[in-house]
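ingest -> validate -> predict -> emit
validate: passed (alphabet ok, no gaps, 241 aa)
predict: started
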Amino acid sequence: MTVHPLLAEALDAHGGLERWRRFGSLSATIVTGGEFWAMKDVVQDSDPRRSTVDIRREWATLNPYGNPDWTSVFTPDRIAIEDRSGAVIAERLDPRAAFAGHGMTTPWDPLHRAYFNGYALWTYFNAPFILADPDFAFEEIAPIENDGETWRGLRAIFPEAIATHSQVQDFYFGADGLLRRHDYHVDVAGGFAGAHLVSDFVNVDGIKLPTRRRAYQRNDDLSVRFDPLMVSIDLSDFRFG
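emit:
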């Protein structure tokens, strides 16, 4: 398989695809904030939670979820909340369909949010390595300038089988090849344009992973609308399985 030159550089900068494929899962402690949750009529606290994603298939968990003994379990065709024994507290099949007609401020129930959390964290944890899947298509796009740096852009067309923010997403990489910004449309919330900044990388078993994520709305000219801060995610204690 021929990898796009910019993607090949980015994969190497993040630790290399060969090393990444040695692992089966990635987990981290996350602390989430931002104004987006209030827009969805969701209460957000600053308690740490543990998220685990599969590297080889689209699957993710978040614990605790709504109760100290509950965990959300995500796959593209099912979202569920389970207790410690694995008993199902609530579930929704074909969960994407439950967002039909939603706008930015349409209230979410716990399963809406669990589905959003699941696909978003799976995408974030696995980027940019998921882009090496042969079912992706690419187009190099114009670079953007940020505080004197030039960030090169790569537009990725996601396979329809992957549940994610939107089928078309843009990834911007710094001179060192590391991911700096990730743009997309949030289709499950009316399709608003998002600009997601990543920074503060750490080296975990030879893989470079960002510990700070900040998502904002994006203007038509690609500039970032810094107020309000939509979603913040601080990550720590990464572990590969």
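The mean pLDDT is 97.
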